[in-house]
């Protein structure tokens, strides 16, 4: 699969890059995507929720009324879950929501995410660029030139670039990562996948390393 390479002025450079069909051209596996995204969201949960049970409520243990003859349901002390201010029945406890997925499944999920974006024509390849100093307006100018300024963008770089990261940090619809930080959730959670020329080779290398 070939993709045109654009410069930061939004014009075609006349060059093309080859997007690996084994990554961008596969049939997406929706169930693998679902599991990987579910794991990503689960791992972000703190799991610190807690409500008090009956034995943890501070209050008298004296029985409030006799067992029978009161005309209503039987109840025990003031800590009863049936009363206002009482304990909670089967309330949440601190727990770990994370779970394990096989590496090959996670790899398939990321490939499926790339293939989904390719099928949507939501991939733009841009030549490698840099800023002399961090300037948000310079990054905004690039998105305007590429006509993607009003869309949620994920920029994938071949390596860390502090100036590019700082230039995009204040833009709420822009996220910048390297090929080492790829995740199914991040790939899908954007309208446009902006890939630097160097990152195309980095994506291939990323999956080759995982296969080995």
General description of the model:
This protein has 212 residues and is α/β, with parallel strands linked by helices. The protein has seven helices and six strands, in the order ββαααβαβαβαβα. A six-stranded mixed sheet has the order 2-1-3-6-4-5. Strand 4, helix 5 and strand 5 form a beta-alpha-beta unit. Helix 2 crosses helix 3 and helix 4 packs across helix 5. The longest helix has 17 residues.
Mean pLDDT figure:
92
H and E order = EEHHHEHEHEHEH
- Judged by helices, strands and strand pairing, the structural class is alpha/beta
| Total helical elements | 7
Quote the distance from N terminus to C terminus: 24 Å
> Which word captures the global form?
elongated
**Which regions have little confidence, pLDDT < 50, spanning 5+ residues?**
none
For the largest sheet, list the strands in their spatial order.
2-1-3-6-4-5
Main beta-sheet strand count, sense and barrel state: 6 strands, mixed
Total strands: the figure is: 6
Give the strand content: 5-15%
Furnish the topology, listing elements before pairings:
Blueprint: E1 2-6, E2 12-18, H1 21-24, H2 30-44, H3 103-119, E3 123-126, H4 136-145, E4 153-157, H5 162-168, E5 174-178, H6 184-188, E6 192-196, H7 197-211
Parallel strand pairs: 1-3, 3-6, 4-5, 4-6
Antiparallel strand pairs: 1-2
């Amino acid at each position: 699969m070939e993709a045109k390479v654009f410069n930061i002025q939004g014009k075609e450079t006349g060059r093309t890059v080859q997007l690996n069909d084994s990554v961008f051209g596969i049939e997406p596996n929706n169930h693998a995507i679902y599991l990987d995204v579910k794991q990503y969201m689960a791992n972000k949960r703190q799991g610190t929720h807690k409500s008090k049970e009956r034995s943890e409520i501070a209050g008298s243990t004296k029985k409030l009324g006799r067992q029978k003859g009161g005309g209503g349901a039987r109840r025990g002390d003031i800590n009863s879950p049936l009363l206002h201010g009482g304990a909670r029945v089967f309330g949440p406890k601190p727990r770990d929501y994370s779970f394990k997925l096989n590496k090959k499944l996670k790899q398939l999920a990321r490939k499926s995410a790339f293939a989904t974006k390719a099928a949507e024509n939501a991939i733009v390849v841009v030549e490698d660029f840099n800023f002399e100093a961090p300037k948000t307006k310079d990054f905004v100018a690039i998105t305007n030139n590429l006509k993607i300024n009003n869309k949620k963008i994920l920029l994938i770089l071949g390596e860390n670039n502090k100036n590019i990261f700082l230039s995009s940090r204040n833009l709420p619809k822009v996220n910048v990562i390297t090929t080492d930080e790829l995740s199914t959730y991040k790939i899908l959670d954007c309208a446009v996948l902006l890939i630097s020329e160097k990152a195309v080779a980095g994506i291939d290398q990323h999956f080759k390393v995982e296969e080995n």
